[in-house]
Amino acid sequence: MTSTPASTHASMPSGQRSPNASPPVSPPAIELRGISRAFGPVQANREIDLSVMPGTIHGIIGENGAGKSTLVSILYGFYQADEGEILIDGRRVDIHDSQAAIAAGIGMVFQHFKLVENFTVLENIILGSEKGALLRPVLAKARRELMDIEREYELEAPPDAKIEDLSIGQRQRVEILKALYRQARVLILDEPTGVLTPAEADRLFAILRRLRSEGKTIILITHKLREIMEVTDTVSVMRQGRMLATVATAATDIEELAERMVGRKVSLQIDKPCACLGDTLLEVENLHIETGTETPASPLAGIDFSLRAGEILGIAGVAGNGQSELLEVLAGYRRAKGSVRIKGCEVALSGSGIDAGSRRAAGLAHIPEDRQGVGLVMGFSVEENAILGYHRSFGYGTGALMDRSAIRSEAKRHITQFDIRPPDPGRAARDFSGGNQQKIVVAREIGAEPDILLIGQPTRGVDIGAIEFIHRRIIALRDAGKAILLVSVELEEILSLADRIMVMFGGRIMGERPAKETDERELGLLMAGVV
Amino acid sequence: MQRTMSDRVDIVLIPIISLFLAFSISALIIAGIGEDPFEAAALMVSGALGSAYGWGYTLYYATNFIFVGLAFAVAFHARLFNIGGEGQAMLGALGTALVALHIPWPHWSLALLGCGIGAALFGAFWALIPAWMQARRGSHIVITTIMFNFIAAALLNYLLVNHLRPEGSVAPGSALFPDAVHLPTLHDILSPLGFAFSKSTPANITAFLSVAAAILLWFFLWRTRTGYEIRTFGHSENAARYAGIDPFRITLIAMGLSGALAGLMALNATMGESERLILNPTEGAGFIGIAVALMGRCHPLGIVLASILFGFLYQGGAELALWTSIPRELIVVIQALVILFTGALDNMVRMPIERLLARSKRARSKA
Q1: CATH top class, domain A30-262
Q2: Which residue from A279, A317, A324 is spatially nearest to A297, judged by alpha carbons?
Q3: Is A366 within 8 Å of B1 when comparing Cβ atoms?
C-alpha cells in the first residue's frame, strides 16, 4: 500500500502535509505528553514530553537505565504508560499492544532482529500479517508490494533468500522492509548499528536519509554520539527517566551531549602511558575448532598470536568471524585443536581435560561477550553472581559449605569499588541496568586479580559513564603489568584502548597493526576481508 | 536473603487465589451434579482435619508427597524434568523390602536407617541410568524417566509374582516384614506425651523424617557449593560452563539425589504402612509429587505446605466418596483443578495481581 501514498494518506488525513493545510500547523508525527511508567519501586519514565515532527530523524540518547527502552516500549505497545497520553498526527491514540502500534503506523526495528532464520525474506515480511488461510496469494501480493517498496526507497533484499544466508546488514534491511510493508510512517530503530561494520552503518544512514526524504519519521535510539551528530535533525537527551532537553543537532556537539547525558563532564579521550612490556603470558599456535559436535558456523582456521604482560591486544572484526569462539576456547569451555600455553604451560584443549575452573586457577579471567547468558545468572543476586566461577575458592568457605558473610562482604566490596547501582547485594542481576550488570561481571573478574584477562565486548549496551569507568579499569590493569586480550566490534574502543590490533575475518587473522599506526579506514577494510 | 513484598505475594497470595478459583469451580461442578458444595466442603474438612483419624491419613499422604515433591524439586533446580519419581519410588520400595526381609534387624531404628539406605540407593540407581543417558548420550530425560516408570512397574510385578511371593500365597505381594521392623506410628510417639492420637492410621515417624529431609535439602541447595552449582546449572547451562561447572557431574548429582529422595518415600508407604512389598506401592504419589513441587515453587517450605494440602485433598476426597453419592472420580477432578490453577494457569492469576499491586503502590506513593 505504501506504493500508493494517496490511498494510504486518504484514511489518515492529519499526517499528510496536504496542500490546503498550511505547513506551520502540521502536528507532530509523534507527541508524548506526561508519560510516566514505574516498575515496582523504579520510576523508569517520569512525565516525559516529546514531540517529533514528521519527516525528520530524531535521536534519543541516554545512559543505560535512563528509560529509553521503556519509552520506546510504551510507544510500541509492549508496556502501558501509567500516566500521560500519546498523540499521533495530533490525534490521541491508545496503544495497548503492538498490533495497535502497527495500526497507528509505527514500525520498530529491534536491536536483536525478530526474524525466523529458516524462512525466506518474503515469508518473514508477511509474518504476522498473513490475512487469510492460504499463503500463496498473500505471498504473490506481498512480492508485488515489496518490489514497489524497494523501488520507492531504494532498499533491496532478495525476496527468496533465507534469512540465515543473509549478512547482518541485509537482515536489518529486511526488518526495515517489514515495517514499511506494514505501512509504518514512523520508524523506531533501537541501537541499530551495534552489529554493523562501519560501511554497513553508513549504508543504513543512507537508507534512513532516503526514508526521511520520502516523508517518513525516524526515531533513532543509540548510545553512539557520533551517529547522532551524523544523521539526526533533532536530538533528545534522557537521564534517570526524565527527558532533559531536546535540541537541534546542528546547535550542539558531542561533548555537550555527553555531559548532559551523564550529568557531569566526561572524558572520552583515553590517555594512557606507553606499554611497558613484560614476559609472554599467553601463546596461541595454529588454533582450530574441532569439527564434529561443535557447530562449524564460524570455525577458527589457524590462529597464532602471543600476548605479553603489560599490553592490551585488541581483536577487531565484525561479529561472527570467530572472535567469540576464540575467547571460548581460551577461557576453557570450547574444544579446539592446536596449542595454547599459559605462562609457558601447555593447557588441554580437548577431551575431558578442558574446564574453565582450571584456567581460572592458572590466573586467567574472562569477561564474556554475553553477560546476560554467560557471565551472569540473571536470577541470582549480586552476591551469588559475585562468586560465579570462583565459588570453589577457599575465601568463600571451607569444605562443602559456603561462607555467606564472606560472600556478602565480597559483593559489597564490588559494589563500592565499581559503583554498582542500586547498591543492593541481595537484588537479582536481572533487575539491574545493562551497564550495572556489566559492572558486576567486571568487578568479579578484575577482583580476582588475574594475570591474563580476556574481555569480550566490554561496553556493549553500556552507558557512557560506565564505559569511561570500565575503560579506566582496563588501562589500570594493563599498567599493573597484566596481559589483556580485548575483543570488540567497536573500532573506536579498540583504537583507543589497544596497544596492538589484530583483525579477524572468517576465522583467520587478516593482519596485525600497532594501534598508533592504523586508523578506522584501514581496519575497516581488513574487517571486510579485503587485504 | 530478604524477601521483598513481591516475593511474599508470589509465594503466599497467588497460590491462595489460585486455590480459591479451583475450589470455586469445583463447587460449581458439585452443585451441577445436584449435591450441596458447602456440605461437601464441610465433609472434606471434617473428614481430613476434623479428627485425629483424619489427620493421621492426611499426614500419611502428605509425607509421601513431601518426599516425591522434594525429589522432583532437586532435579528441577538443575532444570532436569524428572518425571520418573513414580518408578524411582517403586525401586525404593523394592530396596526397602529387600533390606527389611533379608537382614535380621534388632531394633526399628537400625532398620529404619538400613531400609533408608536401601531405599535411597535403589531409587538413586533408577534415576542415575536416565541421568547418565542424558549427560553422555543426550537421551532426553523426560522420555527416559517415563519409560523407566513402566520398566519399574513391570520389574516389580515380575519379582513379586516369581520371586518375592511367599510359598502358598496367591496374591502378588512379599511376606510381611518382621515385627522388629515395625515403625512407631504417631500414636506410639504421641501417647506417652499425653496426646491421644488415632491408633488405626498409618502416619508414622517418617513424617518427621520428611520434614527433616525438606530442611536438609534447603540447606544443601542454598548453603553448599554443590547446591550453588546445581542452581547455577539450572538457571543457565552456559553460565555454568563458563563457571567451570561440569554438566555431567551436576546432572548425576541432581538426579541421584532426586531418585534417592523419591526412593525414601517407601519408608513411609512400604515400611510404615503396608509393611510388606505390594504391587503398585506408590499409588501414583510420584506424579502428585510433580504437582506438589510446582505448586510449592520447588522450595522445600512450599513443598511441605503443598503436600499437606494434597494430603487433605486425598483424605477429604476419600471421605467424600464414602459418605456422599459424589463419585470418587469427582475427587480427581477437584485435584486436577487445583493442579491446573496452581500450576498451569499460574500466570492467569499472577499478571492481573501484579498489575493491581503496582497500581495501588503508585497510588499510595503519590498520596
Answers
A1: alpha beta
A2: A324
A3: no
